[in-house]
Amino acid sequence: MKFDLIFYQSKKTSLCEKKLSELLNKSSISVNTTAFSTTPIALGQRLVESLNCCYLVFVIGNLSTGDSNSFTRVISRAIANSKLTLCNTKKLRSLLGPDGYIISCGKQVIVALPDDPCEIEAMLSHEVIDYITKTVPTE
After folding, report:
1. DSSP code of 27?
2. Is the pLDDT of residue 83 over 70?
3. Is 100 helix (H, G, I), strand (E, B) or coil?
4. To which H or E segment does residue 127 belong?
5. How high is the pLDDT of residue 3?
6. Does the pTM exceed 0.85?
7. Which H helix or E strand runs over 21?
8. What pLDDT shows up at residue 85?
9. CB atoms within 10 A of CB 100
10. 137, 107 in Cβ contact below 8 A?
């Protein structure tokens, strides 16, 4: 199964990509394309492009709640303007920084993670990876 990876206002891109690949390769989940965005509009465009070609998208970076351009605030506005509900969202609890999220709609899944390799490892438990492999088609 392939996924698109979007870094959104992220700083530790290579370390996060390496950790994510390391954790997912065990489940035969690998990167299709990697993209970067620095604005909410660019993030929206990247998400649309990715979801048109992949069932699974990971977004890494800017999950802080204090920033009006944070992923959390941007995706909250998008959900409010769509048919999605909070029932489509699962929070991935963090011990050190901002929480991550799994947002699903049908067979498509967006996983939002902080730009910290240690947090990525803590959040991507076997339970989360099993959920992804059961929800997302192998194409």
Report:
1. T
2. no
3. strand
4. helix 126-135
5. 94
6. yes
7. helix 13-25
8. 61
9. 26
10. yes
Q: Which residue has the higher pLDDT, 54 or 106?
A: 54
107 vs 119: CA distance, rounded Å: 25
Separation of alpha carbons 27 and 43, rounded Å: 27
The answer to whether residue 28 scores a pLDDT higher than 90 is no
Q: Smallest Cα–Cα separation from 59: which of 116, 126, 21, 5?
A: 5
- Which pair of structure tokens corresponds to residue 97? 């920084």
- The number of angstroms, rounded, from the C-alpha of 47 to the middle of its chain's C-alpha atoms is 10
The DSSP letter of residue 1 is -
Alpha carbons 78 and 36: distance in angstroms, whole number: 19
Distance CA 114, CA 99 (A): 7
Domains of the chain: 2-135 (3.40.980.10)
- Looking at residue 94, its pLDDT comes to 80
The Cβ of residue 34 has, within 10 Å, a number of other Cβ atoms equal to 13
Answer for the pair 109, 1: CB distance below 8 angstroms, yes or no.
no
Instruction: Report the pLDDT averaged over residues 39-59.
Output: 91
Please state, in angstroms and rounded to a whole number, the distance separating the CA atoms of residues 72 and 100. 9
